[in-house]
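Good day; I would like, with your permission, to put a structural problem before you. What I wish to show you is a protein chain and, alongside it, a tokenised description of its three-dimensional fold. Thank you for your consideration; the sequence and its tokens are set out here:
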Amino acid sequence: MVQVYFHCTNTEGVWIDRRGAAIGNLAEAQDHAALVVRSLLDAPSTEDWRDWVLHVSDDIGEEIFCLPFASLLGKPQ
């Protein structure tokens, strides 16, 4: 297990994940990242999430991968 952090950014700001999550492998990190993004997208909010990106980093700050929120939003109606 390794501690992994899920930070969110857009052109106007950064949300820092200070707690992280204990993750066993890359597939689990990808699943957790999608869960984090979906939970933000599903929460009541006036935020336009299209330009947000989730950055997944290890416990020494090395980025493992990024997940653009737009990849889970689908096509605009």
